[in-house]
Amino acid sequence: MNIKIVSERYNPLAHRKEIRFIVDHEGATPTFKDVKLKLAAMLNVNKELLIVESIYQETGLQRVRCYAKVYDNEEFLKYFEREHIIRKNQLEEEQEQEG
């Protein structure tokens, strides 16, 4: 899986960095978990503050277009993000702790 950042900007009102990027992959479309962990490692950010909002498969290509946000702290993340997006981005360990 290879990630190429297309655009990156800081949104001072929402206290977050907004990132649009392309992921070239082999085989099946990568999961939110796979993309989140790879992007967090690439950007060297806390994975709990990283939200991958969307993954769109490009027709006929082994490529997806993605949109992610990195928040300054957890308070802003919980204020701005919808609950289902937060749940979708939780890793298995976090889901087991809540369950």
Q: What does it look like?
A:
- The protein is an alpha+beta fold.
- 33% of the residues lie in helices and 36% in strands.
- It is built from four helices and four strands, in the order ββαββααα.
- Strands 1-2-4-3 form a four-stranded antiparallel sheet.
- It is globular and about 40 Å long.
Distinctive features:
4 helices, 36% strand
The secondary-structure class comes to: alpha+beta
Over the alpha carbons, how many angstroms does the gyration radius reach?
Answer: 13 Å
Mean pLDDT value:
91
- Spatial order of the strands forming the largest sheet: 1-2-4-3
Oligomerization state of this entry?
single chain
Q: Gap between N and C termini, in Å?
A: 31 Å
DSSP helical segment count: 4
Strand residue percentage: 35-45%
Low-confidence sequence ranges: none
The biggest beta sheet reads: 4 strands, antiparallel
Shape: globular
The overall strand count is 4
Encode the helix/strand succession as letters.
EEHEEHHH
Estimate the helix proportion, in percent: 25-40%
Summarize the topology.
Elements: E1 2-11, E2 16-24, H1 32-43, E3 50-57, E4 63-71, H2 74-80, H3 83-89, H4 92-98
Antiparallel strand pairs: 1-2, 2-4, 3-4
